Amino acid sequence: MSKQYNSTYIIVITLVATLGGLLFGYDTAVISGTVESLEEYMILPNELGKFALGATVSSALIGCIIGGLLSGILSSRLGRKKSLMVAAVLFLIAALGSAFPEFPFFTHGKSSMGVLWAFNFYRIIGGIGVGLASAVCPMYIGEIAPASIRGRLVSFNQFAIIFGMLVVYFVNWGIAKGQTADWIHATGWRYMFLSGAIPSVLFGFLLFLVPETPRFLSLIRQDVKALSVLEKINGTKERAAAILKEIQATLGESVKSKLTAYGVKVILIGILISVFQQFVGINVALYYAPEIFKSMGAETDSAMMQTIVMGFVNVVFTVLAILTVDKWGRKPLLITGSIGMAVGMFAISILAFNNIIGISTLVFIIIYTASFMMSWGPICWVLISEIFPNRIRGQAVAIAVAAQWAANYFISSTYPPMMDFSSGMTYGFYGTMAVLSAIFVWKWVPETKGKTLEDMENLWKR
Q1: Cα diameter, the chain
Q2: Is 451 helix (H, G, I), strand (E, B) or coil?
Q3: What region, left, alpha or beta, does residue 255 occupy, with left being phi > 0 and alpha being psi -120 to 50 degrees?
Q4: Alpha helix (H) ranges present in 354-446?
Q5: pTM for the whole thing?
Q6: How far apart are CA 61 and CA 127, in angstroms?
Q7: Distance, CA of 334 to CA of 336 (rounded, Å)
Q8: Tens digit of pLDDT for each residue in 160-204?
């Protein structure tokens, strides 16, 4: 069968859209290189403790919850493309504001509670951008991509998220390399946040060059424009017209249903998939990576470098998941990943209880993150996008994504006080969650490999 799409055009559009995923990863991970500086500049001068530090490091996640909830409304009213433009503007505002939270109301370089509140405000603005991007980027790619390559292209957005994290690890390391701790605490952390302005501007500019999705154009009755985009994507007018007819038929059949039309269980499973992805503690490893390595005795430069090594591991094992998810299935990968994460976290917990710090700790952190990236990292998003029946998907995905960001905030903000109480107990908790996640997948989550969305509807009806 001959290829029936314009691959070059589709790849270009996808690469632009995945810049939103890259910024998602960049904005959430940039904080990892600034934790100690934020404590020195904003927390200690205001006589605040570890809980305030955890809340500040995690404040963007409040915005992520808001952005996730707003994504359905904005993408339906403004369209997918304009929603991504809004996200790009929010990313830019957050980069500038987080770097200079004193502007324009406070004195530069002089910390106060007002500066701390302003910093958290800008991080929340960036979080709204992340929440929007996390929902709309996969939606945009999915609605542009031909069915035969949709899975690979949507999965590439997850790769872009991890790649964005790796890029910012390099940026943070480059800024801190060879500098004194005093300079980093006074100035370096600002450059780390400011660096996010570059991809934000690029993303916003390139979005002017890509089209709105044909599904949204058809939804707002702009069928001529929808046909034009489909023709560019699929190469021939006949093929485009046939696809447009299918889209119109789907939209015509769209019926609003109660969220519980297929029972509470499907909603609960979607929420728990999201919650377990966070309760295994992955974002603690991502946000606090340099601090974890410094607690193991590493200097600032080497802690940043070890974070980069971890970033490479993330990229490699995310690619492994993308290559195997349609061959091995969702459940085997998730259960295997849960077991690997449990091994890694329980080993780190035992080492912490025995005050053993060294290369062994790094090895088990890598085992843990590699296990997550080949399983729960990308496959959580795959399952959330396909497990819900068509009629409730929009509402259900919004709830699942909001639950994910809420769980992310809870785990990230409680990490510093938990570590103050007992590092061994903290890592043991995440290991326990990994075990429970494996049992949950084994008992409750259906295998969706090879099933159509209509199959899923019939499954939940039964």
Answers
A1: 69
A2: coil
A3: beta
A4: 359-373, 376-386, 393-421, 423-444
A5: 0.78
A6: 6
A7: 6
A8: 888 898 889 889 989 988 889 899 998 999 999 999 999 999 999
